[in-house]
Amino acid sequence: MSRIGKSPITLPQGVEFKVNDNVVTVKGKLGELSQKLTSNITVKEEDGTLTVERPSDSKEHKAAHGLYRALISNMIEGVTKGYTKELELVGVGYRASNQGQKLDLALGFSHNIVLELAPEVKVETVSEKGKNPIVKLTSHDKQLVGQVAAKIRSFRKPEPYKGKGVKFVGEVIRRKAGKSA
């Protein structure tokens, strides 16, 4: 992990960066994120580049070095570009719709699943005739959008025989052969 920690992070134009009491705060056009650092990791800003430094070469410091460098890099990318996850509903009668921050999923259960999403996550549903419905989740927080996508996927994971369920767009489902004659 220390090789990742050694590489510098370039600050894009329009991104504010502050460190107060081991709390890193990044503010950009899409929002504001903050991350608490362990007491031994330091972040220095010089000429628009950030460097993450560790006090020693112990195993814990090396691991934390790479971890916090990656987290800060993801925060900067999130407030400038944002993150998007797309989920595909594969199955007959599987539907998705949204009213504001409420996501309504019909996944073959007796009742629809209604999920209230955090205000930081923007949700959009796309339903075209002849194609599987797609749920698009967008946010500046990589961890939050991944957690929400995993929660939606956990309602009906793809099964290996027909491939029905909620899957990520582009995800390859390992298929099994059915009954042999």
Write the layout of secondary structure elements.
Elements: H1 2-6, E1 9-10, E2 16-20, E3 23-27, E4 32-36, E5 42-46, E6 49-53, H2 59-80, E7 83-90, E8 95-99, E9 102-106, E10 113-116, E11 122-126, E12 134-139, H3 142-155, E13 165-168
Antiparallel strand pairs: 1-6, 2-3, 3-4, 5-6, 7-12, 7-13, 8-9, 9-10, 11-12
How many H/I helices?
3
Number of strands: 13
Helix content: 10-25%
Helix/strand structural class = alpha+beta
Output mean pLDDT.
91
Low-pLDDT segments: none
Radius of gyration: 21 Å
- Which H/E pattern describes the elements? HEEEEEEHEEEEEEHE
Which geometry do the CA atoms define?
elongated
What's the N-to-C terminus distance? Answer: 51 Å
The biggest sheet amounts to: 4 strands, antiparallel
What does this structure look like?
- This protein has 181 residues and is α+β, with helices and mostly antiparallel strands.
- 23% of the residues lie in helices and 35% in strands.
- The chain is built from three helices and 13 strands, in the order H-E-E-E-E-E-E-H-E-E-E-E-E-E-H-E.
- It has helices at residues 2-6, 59-80, 142-155; strands at residues 9-10, 16-20, 23-27, 32-36, 42-46, 49-53, 83-90, 95-99, 102-106, 113-116, 122-126, 134-139, 165-168.
- The strands form four sheets. It has a four-stranded antiparallel beta sheet, with helices on one face. The protein has a three-stranded antiparallel beta sheet with strand order 1-6-5. The chain has a three-stranded antiparallel beta sheet with strand order 2-3-4, covered by helices on one side.
- A hairpin with a 2-residue loop joins strand 8 (95-99) and strand 9 (102-106).
